[in-house]
């Protein structure tokens, strides 16, 4: 009776275990070669290892007497009998009679030798790790052992492996990280405590009027109640801040790794269309726009899936030719970035970096390549900056030629033409392209069909659709740079200028973006859209992939957009006017991410194209109850009928139009067919049972067809000025019209349909741009935002009219967007109260008693602690928080107040008011990069804060003199007035600093206005409170 054949492996002299061939099965019972030395066997085989699990809980045992071989346990945990599988090398058919007592006894002795060799020297326990390392073994199901070299077969004879039984774990692309409870819980407790203290303080103030100055008491009470209400609107949405992180490795494994559905490892990521908007090359330099485009063309996203569009709303030849130069330079810049992993990929920012450029660069030719590409970039800048002069000289020469030809056709000279009486048509002063043809856009000298509001539509493909497969460089392709093994393809790049004609409302930036949406749907139809301002560039080349993780993750089909924070360059180190706005981007927006998502802020936003078309999400919830505490699944979206399509007013009044699917997209059949394609391509992979509304892997591997003439002609058609007539563009589809801040309204309408958004804060800044550091420019920027908020408040986009699909706290956040400008009315009033108190000798309370001071102390302490905790969970600095507080007062007393006045006049009387610059003080210091910080441009927005500063300074002087010379000094009222006046002046410090300019170069108008205000206040005070003519008994001086 012989034993069962066993598979062996031999340990080499180096300690590595080498498996024997499966054909070399041997019988321990027949051959004595495998016995120990004491039994007379060959001692060389002491180094052979039996490939069975010599673990304490899986030791081989001798078969019991009378047992059958079929009763032995299966290595996969079940009975071997009837298992339907057979293993080569262990238990071949026909050997069922072997494996009895004699063989089992020898096997036990062999196992004891193996076990003794693998005992831990310290504890005497079996060393599993050492055994796995030395044998390179793996465990199978349970404790069963499976060798990587073994091959098993199923009932049909098909080979199977242990990996077929082990399901590969599904990896999410993103994860949500809660703020630590040690920070968030005290933060929420302090919010409740401060709310209680405010309630008690306001109730005490109402119950304790000031009989000496009831008007002062009434004004202060009204302002304080509004401030408490405004604080609640701002604070409630901050109760649930969260952080997020994306897994780029998992994204690559799912979408760009070879698999049965993707055998060649091509990218299965969806298409992406990037939009850049520009309008005037005089205000938006083409070189800045060109650098933005270069950073996008070089970003790390599949080349064949990326398309770039620039909207030139001014139709300027300067912009067109600058983009042509940019496309030419990109053919060397983009491969250079890929070869040496350059970061950032904006050449202007890259070459301005102060650190060592060779750090972490391993290729020996980096220095040579960088020196050559720097020289090429300098020449590129010279060409771009010289384009205005080139276009002018070219146009002048060709116009002179046309005039000469016209004279020759008319008879040789102007004198002959005049004497002959022939009518000569005056020659136009055209703008000429490089191919000696008229530019179809705007001319330098406006003429019919060639002005900013009257020109044809233009679509020019600067870089055509790339090949689906990589195109690697070869030696000799470039005379100076070696791009061997580097993919030299470039994404598709298209120049677009929509048609404009008199009599049409072109809706500014929102109309330009909607034209890009339609044109891109015809040309590339990317499932996602990323929009930038022309001065914002990609600072982190992996940022787009991080944003795509949120769109492609489980539940990503409900995400309408991913908003990235805005980061800025070129701001003064002290950030005097809070240009970084970190409190909003790192505080408020991060907190909104814990609700239904952040707002859309105009740039750096990754959109789902299907959501931008106005469709509701595939799944949504409704929040019912007083504060949305009852959640239920929303019913399916209402199917639009033909009656709705024919009705210009849209759906019936009993249903919110945001809950209906739009139907009127225009008369382009090609565009209509692209909608379903974009929706399908934007779905996440259906690689997990929990993923709903997914698509199968490998569905987006089909190459994109090249562009043809009919397709480009259709793209020109959809950007015509008449295309949006009788459609829902700007109403429910695309960017929404009717507001200066079309970005906030567009995001609100998506949230109102039930979509959610995501805030993506990358470790390295995703995008960077520029911001105005001049006080006047900053105030006008804030004025535009505040004016849009007032328009939102008086429109149907007011959050009070939102649907039940908007969460309660999200509704509060959007309500605050429309309400915050009105705080300026109460803020201006409150800033004058300290001065009025000092002028009148009274205070907002009758006496500074203990109760008032205790409430004031408690409210101040809770506010300070809340600020510290908010700084902690948001990651902002204390100085940034303080700068934000200062500019909140500055903007509230100037730009916000002007926005309220402008909005009320527009709503009530239909009067449009424009706050423009009236005078300018130039700065001659060109060496200082912050020179614009000191440029003073007088504007009417300076009047309210300047008046507040002067009034409080005069009031402090008057109050101090009255108290000093008073028979019964009221020091408590003086200190109260002084304290609040000092509070106002500290917050107004940035205005005073900005108006003083550099080295005292303050414009004369500032001193004139200050003198007028001071004299007016003095005369007003004398008329209201004339001096006492009685001579003091003490012989004091009469004033």
Please describe the structure with a list of short key phrases separated by commas or semicolons.
1039 residues, alpha+beta, eight-stranded mixed β-sheet, three-stranded antiparallel β-sheet, 10% strand, disordered N terminus, disordered C terminus
Query: Please, what is the average pLDDT?
Result: 81
CA(first)-CA(last) distance: 133 Å
Shape designation: globular
Q: What is the rounded Rg? A: 39 Å
Structural class: alpha+beta
- Helicity range: 40-55%
Q: Largest sheet, order of strands side by side?
A: 15-16-12-11-17-21-19-24
Uncertain runs: 1-8, 21-104, 642-646, 648-653, 915-926, 1029-1039
In short:
The chain has 1039 residues and is α+β, with helices and mostly antiparallel strands. It is 41% helix and 10% strand. It has 29 helices and 27 strands.
Task: List strands and helices in order, with pairings.
Layout: E1 8-11, E2 17-19, E3 48-50, E4 86-87, H1 101-117, H2 128-135, E5 138-139, E6 145-146, E7 152-153, E8 159-160, E9 174-178, H3 181-207, H4 214-235, E10 242-246, H5 248-255, E11 272-278, H6 286-297, E12 306-312, H7 317-340, H8 347-351, H9 366-385, H10 387-410, H11 414-420, E13 450-451, E14 454-455, E15 458-463, E16 492-497, H12 508-523, E17 528-533, E18 537-538, H13 543-552, E19 559-563, E20 568-569, H14 582-592, E21 605-608, H15 609-612, E22 621-624, E23 630-633, H16 642-646, H17 669-681, H18 709-718, H19 742-752, E24 756-759, E25 767-770, H20 775-793, H21 808-819, H22 823-840, H23 850-874, H24 878-892, H25 895-908, E26 919-921, E27 936-938, H26 943-964, H27 971-987, H28 989-996, H29 1004-1024
Parallel strand pairs: 11-12, 11-17, 12-16, 19-24, 20-25
Antiparallel strand pairs: 1-2, 1-3, 4-7, 5-6, 7-8, 9-10, 13-14, 15-16, 17-21, 18-25, 19-21, 22-23, 26-27
């Amino acid at each position: 009776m012989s034993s069962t054949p066993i598979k062996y492996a031999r340990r080499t002299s180096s300690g590595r275990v080498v498996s024997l061939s499966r054909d070399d099965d041997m019988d321990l019972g027949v051959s004595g070669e495998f016995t120990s030395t004491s039994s007379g066997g060959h001692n060389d085989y002491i180094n052979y290892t039996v490939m069975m699990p010599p673990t304490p809980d899986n030791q081989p045992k001798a078969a019991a007497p009378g047992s059958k071989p079929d009763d032995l346990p299966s290595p996969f945990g079940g009975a071997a009998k009837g298992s339907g599988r057979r293993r080569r090398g262990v238990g071949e058919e026909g050997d069922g009679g072997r494996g009895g007592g004699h063989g089992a006894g020898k096997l036990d002795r062999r196992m004891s030798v193996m076990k003794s060799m693998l005992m831990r020297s310290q504890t005497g326990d079996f060393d599993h790790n050492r055994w796995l390392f030395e044998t390179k073994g793996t465990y199978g199901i349970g404790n069963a052992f499976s060798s990587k070299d073994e091959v098993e077969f199923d009932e049909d004879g098909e080979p199977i492996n242990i990996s077929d039984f082990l399901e590969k774990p599904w990896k999410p692309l993103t994860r949500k990280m809660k703020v630590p409870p040690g920070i968030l819980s005290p933060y929420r407790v302090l919010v409740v405590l401060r709310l209680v203290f405010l309630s008690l303080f306001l109730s005490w103030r109402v119950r304790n009027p000031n009989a000496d100055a009831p008007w002062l008491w009434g004004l202060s009470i009204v302002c304080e109640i509004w401030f408490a209400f405004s604080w609640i609107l701002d604070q409630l949405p901050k109760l649930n801040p969260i952080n997020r992180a994306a897994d780029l490795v998992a994204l690559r494994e799912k979408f760009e790794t070879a698999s049965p559905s993707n055998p060649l490892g091509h990218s299965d990521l969806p298409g992406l269309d990037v939009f850049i908007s520009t309008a005037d090359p005089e205000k938006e330099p083409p070189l800045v726009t060109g650098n933005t485009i270069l950073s996008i063309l070089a970003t790390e996203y599949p080349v064949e899936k990326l398309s770039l569009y620039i909207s030139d709303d001014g139709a300027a030849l300067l912009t067109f030719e600058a983009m042509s130069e940019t496309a030419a330079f990109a053919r060397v810049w983009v491969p250079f970035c890929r070869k040496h992993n350059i970061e950032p990929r904006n050449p202007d920012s890259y070459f301005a970096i102060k650190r060592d450029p060779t750090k972490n660069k391993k290729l020996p030719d980096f220095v040579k390549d960088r020196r050559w590409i720097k020289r090429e970039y300098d020449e590129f800048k010279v060409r771009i900056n010289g384009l205005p002069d080139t276009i002018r000289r070219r146009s002048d020469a060709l116009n002179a030629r046309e005039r000469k030809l016209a004279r020759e056709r008319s008879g040789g000279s102007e004198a002959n033409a005049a004497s002959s009486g022939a009518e000569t048509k005056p020659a136009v002063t055209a703008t000429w392209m490089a191919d000696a043809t008229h530019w179809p856009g705007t001319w330098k000298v406006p003429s019919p069909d060639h002005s900013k509001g009257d020109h044809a539509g233009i679509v020019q493909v600067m870089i055509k659709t790339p090949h689906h497969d990589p195109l690697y460089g070869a030696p000799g392709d470039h005379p100076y740079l070696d791009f061997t093994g580097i993919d030299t393809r470039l994404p598709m790049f298209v120049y677009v200028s929509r048609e404009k004609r008199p009599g049409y409302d072109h809706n500014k930036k929102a109309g330009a973006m909607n034209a890009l949406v339609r044109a891109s749907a015809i040309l590339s139809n990317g499932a996602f859209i990323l929009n930038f301002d022309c001065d914002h560039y990609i600072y982190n080349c992996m940022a787009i992939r991080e944003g795509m993780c949120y769109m492609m993750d489980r539940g990503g089909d409900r995400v309408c957009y991913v908003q990235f924070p805005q980061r800025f360059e070129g701001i003064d180190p002290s950030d005097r006017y809070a240009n970084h706005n970190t409190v909003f981007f790192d505080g408020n927006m991060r907190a909104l991410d814990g609700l239904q998502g952040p707002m859309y802020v105009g740039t750096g936003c990754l959109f789902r194209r299907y959501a931008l078309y106005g469709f509701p999400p595939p799944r949504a919830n409704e929040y019912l109850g007083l504060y949305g505490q009852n959640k239920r699944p929303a019913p399916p979206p209402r199917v639009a009928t033909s009656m709705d399509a024919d009705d210009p007013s849209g759906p019936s009044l009993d249903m919110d139009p945001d809950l209906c699917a739009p139907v009127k997209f225009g008369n382009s059949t090609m565009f209509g067919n692209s909608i379903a394609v974009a929706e399908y391509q934007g779905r996440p992979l259906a690689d997990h049972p929990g993923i709903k509304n997914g698509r199968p892997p490998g569905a987006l591997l089909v190459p994109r067809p090249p562009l043809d003439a009919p397709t480009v002609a259709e793209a020109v058609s959809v950007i015509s000025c008449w295309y949006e007539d009788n459609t829902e563009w700007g109403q429910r589809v695309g960017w929404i019209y009717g507001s200066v801040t079309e970005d906030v309204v567009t995001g609100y309408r998506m949230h109102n349909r039930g979509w959610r958004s995501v805030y993506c804060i990358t470790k390295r800044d995703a995008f960077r741009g520029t911001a105005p550091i001049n006080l006047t420019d900053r105030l006008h920027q804030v004025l535009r935002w505040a004016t849009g908020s007032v328009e939102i408040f008086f429109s149907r986009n007011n959050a009070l009219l939102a649907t039940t699909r908007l969460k309660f706290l999200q509704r509060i956040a959007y309500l605050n967007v429309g309400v915050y400008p009105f705080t300026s009315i109460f803020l201006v009033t409150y800033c004058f109260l300290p001065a009025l108190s000092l002028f009148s000798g009274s205070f907002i309370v009758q006496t500074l008693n203990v109760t008032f001071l205790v409430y004031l102390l408690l409210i101040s302490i809770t506010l300070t602690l809340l600020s510290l905790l908010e700084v902690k969970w948001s990651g902002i600095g204390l100085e940034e928080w303080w700068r934000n507080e200062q500019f909140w007062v500055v903007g509230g007393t100037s730009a916000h107040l002007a926005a309220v006045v402008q909005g009320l006049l527009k709503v009530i009387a239909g009067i449009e008011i424009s706050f423009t610059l009236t005078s300018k003080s130039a700065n001659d210091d060109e060496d200082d990069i912050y020179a614009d910080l000191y440029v003073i441009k007088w504007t009417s927005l300076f009047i309210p804060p300047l008046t507040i500063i002067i009034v409080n300074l005069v009031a402090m002087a008057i109050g101090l003199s009255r108290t000093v010379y008073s028979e019964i000094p009221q020091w408590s009222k003086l200190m109260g007035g002084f304290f609040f006046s000092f509070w106002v002046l500290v917050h107004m410090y940035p205005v005073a600093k900005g108006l003083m300019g550099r080295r005292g170069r303050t414009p004369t108008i500032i001193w004139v206005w200050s003198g007028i205000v001071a004299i007016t206040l003095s005369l007003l005070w004398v008329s209201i409170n004339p001096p006492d003519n009685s001579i003091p008994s003490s012989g004091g001086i009469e004033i």
